[in-house]
Amino acid sequence: MSIVSMTDVVKSYPSSEKNGAPVVAIDGVTLQVEKGDVYGIIGYSGAGKSTLVRLVNGLEKATSGSIVVSGTEITSLRERSMRAVRGDIGMIFQQFNLFNSKTVARNVAYPLEVAGRSKTEVTARVAEMLAFVGLSDKAKNYPDQLSGGQKQRVGIARALATSPSLLLADEATSALDPETTSEVLALLDRVNRELGVTIILITHEMDVIRSLATKVAVMDGGRIVERGDVFDVFSQPENAASARFVSTVVQGIPSPVEVATLKARHEGRIVTFSFRDGNASQAQVFLDLAEAGIRFELVYGGINDIRGRAFGHLTLALTGEDAALDAALARIATHSEVTEVSR
Amino acid sequence: MDKLIDLLPLLGEAAWETLYIVAASLLFGGIAGLFIGLGLYVTRAGSILENRVAFTVINVLVNIFRPIPFIIFIAAIQPLARAVLGTGIGNGALIFAISIGAAFGISRIVEQNLLTVSPGVIEAARAAGAGPFRIIRTVLLPEALGPLILGYTFVLIVLVDMSAVGGYIGGGGIGNFAIQYGYRQFNPAVTWAAVLVVIVFVQLIQFFGNSLARKIMRR
Questions:
Q1: Which residue of A84, A101, A114 is in closest CB contact with B143?
Q2: Closest residue in chain B to residue A84, using alpha carbons only
Q3: Minimal Cα–Cα distance from B45 to chain A, Å?
Q4: pLDDT of residue A257
């Protein structure tokens, strides 16, 4: 069942200049997020990701289109009724946005107080959430006494205090160092697996998508240009923008500049073999090369693992008789993807 | 100098009067300024109760009243003081004039300090389902408290300054004392005694304001 269902959603802002054309931030997005998904939305700054996620909890109002969250059409809701819907949607932010004037415990308590829970209920739930994020000993501290990673964990505890079924994460790890990032990602993974919370994750870091998301949508210019299973988008990006993102974490087919460097350092012909789980075998490729008497050297690329499925691009420098090499490549091409990048 | 010693009881009385006028003006003007400042903040574009018409009206009102020199304002507001208080002279009318005159200036200081609160924090409160009035009470004011205290410290010193022209409409206070017994009687020692009292007031106000703000902001 879809927890979030967007259909033909448009969000435009009036132009800052007089009589100027309105600025379109979201240009006709249709998106289905299923219960239990970790749905990653990736795109460059200004692609519309932040606006898109704010449409889901009504922090921004859609100009047109339909947005259904947990069965409620929210585009027609007034601000007052929208507040009730927000109780079932948590949100975490790049800059954490903790209340600096309140202790850690009071930060986590805030949404519970807004929801009108009793004092005893609030105290118990705050203790439970702080234990979940591993910050029970920081309850009485103020946010400026915490590290970035701890702040985001408080942000997560606050966002989940009212037991929402949906969590919106807006660049939640972009202000953190790599080590802290993996810590927070591991926590978000627990949130999804142990608490069953659906997560919509906005990021410009492909690595975050790779380690956490089950599905991904790539945004460019206010539109979703590609979407699908994370493995599919990573292993075979179809859109140019997606391919650029994938190339930040996956060494694919070397670019002409990289080929030039490879040529300078290695002898022979440079060929890239692409593998996706199930449809190609590395062993067979190497066997075919060896049988044809061709010497090979791995010069670029690697194998990637996404949620237990492997794919990758291996670029080899091949030396041997040209005719034998051509024959071998032809044979390999029958069972694997071969791209000769330079000869 | 002998004259000054004779005048010391009057100086003490004038000092107390200044404290009373400033405290009362801070109460009335400070609260009015807080509300006007909040009005400016919440109605501005992109804020929690965005309202272009309301913002423009408040903004224009503040811009009209704020720049009027106080010594002119105090005379201009006299008819209103008479209508409201029944008198246009004395400390009551003075407090009335200072409260209204200062409220517009205070509103700008309040607005500026509220703007230092990160919009992201307000957004977090909205995302938690909080309405505008709850956000003002539980997030906006607590988050801006440190800067607001510094702002009000500044305001308090301005109020001491404003109260000094109280003699103009028959009010008392240290300014009146300095003019009546120092300036008009060609006695600089008396004037300077009044100056010293004002300096002490200002130092104390700034000291307490700073330490209170530091205490609030360190947590």
A1: A101
A2: B129
A3: 12
A4: 86
CB A243 within 8 A of CB A201: no
Residue A262, phi-psi category: left (phi > 0), alpha (psi -120 to 50), beta (remainder):
alpha
* Backbone angles phi and psi of B123, in degrees to 5: -60, -40
Read off the pLDDT band of A18 (50, 70, 90).
confident
Chain A residues with CB inside 8 Å of B143's CB? Answer: 99-101
Q: Is the Cβ of B13 closer than 8 Å to some Cβ of chain A?
A: no
Which of B137, B138, B215 to mutate to test binding with chain A, by most A CBs within 10 Å of its CB? B138
pLDDT band at residue A254, thresholds of 50, 70 and 90?
confident
What is the rounded average pLDDT for all residues in chain B?
A: 94
Those of residues 104-163 in B touching chain A at CB distance below 8 A are 118, 120-121, 123-131, 134, 138-139, 142-143, 145
Q: Which residues of A touch B142 (CB under 8 A)?
A: 99, 101-102
User: pTM of the full predicted structure?
Assistant: 0.88
Residue A49 near residue A219 (C-beta atoms within 8 A): yes
Q: How far are the Cα atoms of A167, A168, A226 from residue A212, in angstroms, in the given order?
A: 14, 14, 18
Q: Are A90 and A98 in contact (CB under 8 A)?
A: no
Other CB atoms within a 10 A radius of the CB of residue B212 amount to 16
| Position B219 confidence tier, pLDDT thresholds 50, 70, 90 | low
pLDDT tens digits for range A267-309: 889 999 888 876 557 888 888 898 888 999 999 988 888 877 8
| CA count, 13 A, side-chain hemisphere, B169 | 27
User: What's the ipTM?
Assistant: 0.88
| Nearest residue of chain A to residue B134 (CA atoms) | A114
Q: Return the pLDDT at B1.
A: 65
Count of all residues that appear for chain B in the document: 219
Q: How many angstroms separate the first and last alpha carbons of chain B?
A: 49
Q: What is the pLDDT of residues B53-77, one digit of tens each?
A: 999 999 999 999 999 999 999 999 9
